[in-house]
Amino acid sequence: MISIGARTAARRARGRGRPRPVEVRLRTVVSPHQLNSRWGRRLYWAVLLAVLAGSTLAFVFPMYWMVTGAMKSGEELARMPPTLVPAAPTLDAFTEAWELFDIGLLLRNTAYYALGGWLFSMAVDVAAAYALSKLRPAFGNVILGAMLATLMVPPMVVLIPLYVTVADLGLLNNPWGLWLPAAANGFNIFLLKRFFDSIPKELIEAARIDGAGPLRVLWSVVLPVSRPILGVVSIFTIVASFKDFVWPLLIMTDSEKMTISVGLSQTAGAVSQNAIMAGLVIAGVPTVIVFFFFQRNIMAGLTAGSIKG
Amino acid sequence: MGVLKRNLTAYGFLCAALACFAVFAWYPMVREFVLSFQHTNLIDPPTWAGLDNFTAVVRDPAFGTAWLNTVQFTVLALICGYAVPFVTALVLNELRHARGYLRFVVYLPVMLPPIVAVLLFRWFYDPGPGLFNQILDFFHLPALAWLDSSSTALVSLVIVSTWMNMGSATLIYLAALQNIPPELYEAAELDGAGILARIRHVTIPQTRLILLLMLMLQIVATMQVFIEPYMLTGGGPENSTVTVAYLMYQFAFTYGDGYGQAGALGLMLMLALLLFAAFQLRLTREDKA
After folding, report:
1. Would residue B119 count as lying in a domain?
2. How many whole angstroms from its chain centre is CA B36?
3. Does pLDDT of A18 surpass 60?
């Protein structure tokens, strides 16, 4: 502390490089004046460093530990105290996990369910939102209300009757058992409808005068201008199906048809720790990559859905 | 376009969604009631059970514990999962640097499939080479049994749950904080309000609606906790982590053909949540008047 003070004093005496004030664009709890007082600035940097270190430790370090854990040998994993950096990093655990869990198959299944589910629920939900927003049928508001009401019912509560229904329809171990219930998503319809509502009437009228039918209007006018919301809903739908656990656990019970989450949970007890870690890394990679690329859209969708909803 | 034709086209576009909702959303809600009064094994035609399912569920030795644990889990998860994200959002909102990085990092666990987070933490909780006990050891603190002791198991579940879910709450609060008009803070400052007073009289009232909404959503979400006890503890040790949702799963899929009992338990959970929602609505309404 003393040395820091001395250094600042020396720098002041030399008359150059007064510490740059913290720039404030938006006023928050702490006033810019307080923030840029001498102690305010010191406290600010201290808090910033603490938050950076703390959140990196809390959120990035576990991921680091998982990835490096997968690269350690079995003995090194069990060693106490643990090594921070793998002594002899290998990718053996990944190949081992790939074969033991049959991860290739699990990943292919999951991707197939996610893409199929995405295509199907987009088709169903976009059509429904378009009808409710632009074609305005009789009882449209009642239907929308009934769809939104399903959001109030916690999924766990209707899990068993839903399972029984799907079993009655013979959809166990059938991808449609995942796709059909996923399409009944009131939240997607709500987000899409709200966006469609904001499309100017004139645009649609103009297309109609040119002789476009409802399907043509949807395809060539509404969809092209709705790209942002379509992107958000798509990402959420795909990520949700990658993350889903309980429902595929119940209905995709054939080991040939499991998703990666369910497959990992079934074999986790039977294989070595570093193979599990490798499996976890592989299972985590797709959604994290999606996050890297679509961060902005995901954040936008998150706040669009929650604040004004 | 005539009215009839317009309605017909509209319902044409709607029919797929209506069918999906009818079969997989609206009908299961009704089915829940019917199911709780039936004996069914999905093969033979279901028979009327009267209140048998309900008495069977209530008589189950884990019934009381499950409710108690669920409430305990919800309260603990709220203390962590409600306060921590709000404070985090408050602090992040004050920072002018590395905002993108911090937001990214806080939300990262939300993107991981829950099974990954849960199995990762199972390894951290390992009493031997697990990371947590190694850290305690590094600071010369006594090791904990984490998942293996009935006094720490539930808390361990709350920690995982908070870690993997707090990101979305934090970002939602952060967005709400950024919508507060700066003039309010300036006015409060002119009136001589210190930082804590500004938080109390400006920040919290301005974010009240979103705080209440999130409280409700989080309670509903945590009351349904399933994957953590299912993967980490199997309800143990000594039933200390059996939750209502987990017990429901056990009735239906472990005890064998107890779909009716599971339905009855689900119905009770739904009623509990509805009562809570009504209570909450009433509170907010009185507040407004």
Report:
1. yes
2. 24
3. no
